[in-house]
């Protein structure tokens, strides 16, 4: 017969396992990341914090820096090829990136939690993603947003205004129309 103590330990262990596999903490995912809640944060122009200057290596192995895009609106997308919402939003991001390229908007990806850049390159090829991406294995670039609008999920998209300030953030996949509207709002508020 199992002792009361053993049953209690087993019950606590089962509850801990259930808590780890579902609920608010990870939105019911089982793929090892926290999915977003779809929240959109807009920051009034007067209240915007300076954006971090992101510097590192691109997927092509060459140096990449957001400083090279100073004076433009910059859209930074945190993603991974293993992330289902990232796959879902990739066509929308590329659509808006192409549409806004002539409107002083630069898109930049921030690859996270992916050891093999070849899988990210294949992802970009499959979805037709033409803008550059940083490789951010240690999460250093992601953490650079902690002083302005930190993230809690993948994907996350930030919009940096032409004055180099964090103007908006979307936590979760974003549609082309929502992203285009946010970029338009940011550009109007900065003009």
TrEMBL record:
SUPFAM superfamilies: Thioredoxin-like (SSF52833). Residues 1-19 form the signal peptide. Residues 45-188 form the Thioredoxin domain. Keywords: Cytochrome c-type biogenesis, Disulfide bond, Redox-active center, Signal, Signal-anchor, Transmembrane. It comes from Aeromicrobium wangtongii. It is found in: Cell envelope. Pfam families: Redoxin. The lineage of its organism: Bacteria, Bacillati, Actinomycetota, Actinomycetes, Propionibacteriales. Coiled coil: none annotated. This is TlpA family protein disulfide reductase.
